[in-house]
Amino acid sequence: MYHLLRFASSYAQKLPVNIAMGMPKCSARNDSELLDLETRHQVLSMYLWLSNHFEEERFPYVKKAETMATDIAQLLAESLIKANWKPESRNAGKSKPQEKEDGYERPMSLIKLREGKKQERSQNAEQLEKVTA
């Protein structure tokens, strides 16, 4: 979002939209570095998309962005091939409270809720068949 805001601000001020992002030197060694590579690639993809949909002269660094995106894609590929680190926990350092202080409990996902209702209906149908048999 930071980069999108920067791109939009430059464009609104009728300035050339700059990339101003460093290039990583090596492939990722852990989840955080992999996420950073993915984010950088998304930012460059966004720049390229904007350059195709808005005035070309406002996006003077298209070739640089293409080269950087290709290089980062290569680093991503190398990172995934060499990935041998243990995945980091999504909840690292966070305790997962079952119920909040105000009595609010997070609702189940709609898919799980629907599956539960479907299973309940099939059990009711089985019981009805037993009763009628």
Task: Describe the model.
Helix 2 (31-53) runs antiparallel to helix 3 (62-82). The chain starts with a helix and ends with a helix. The protein contains four helices and no strands. It is elongated and about 80 Å long. The protein is 59% helix and 0% strand. It has 133 residues and is mainly alpha-helical. Keywords: ATP-binding, Helicase, Hydrolase, Nucleotide-binding.
- Average predicted local confidence, pLDDT: 84
| Overall radius of gyration | 25 Å
Tell me roughly what share of residues is in helical segments: 55-70%
Low-confidence stretches: none
Per DSSP E runs of 2 or more residues, the count of β-strands stands at 0
Gap between N and C termini: 63 Å
Q: Which percent band covers the strand fraction? A: under 5%
The major β-sheet equals:
none
| Continuous helix count | 4
The best one-word shape is elongated
Order of secondary-structure elements: HHHH
Structural class by SSE content: mainly alpha
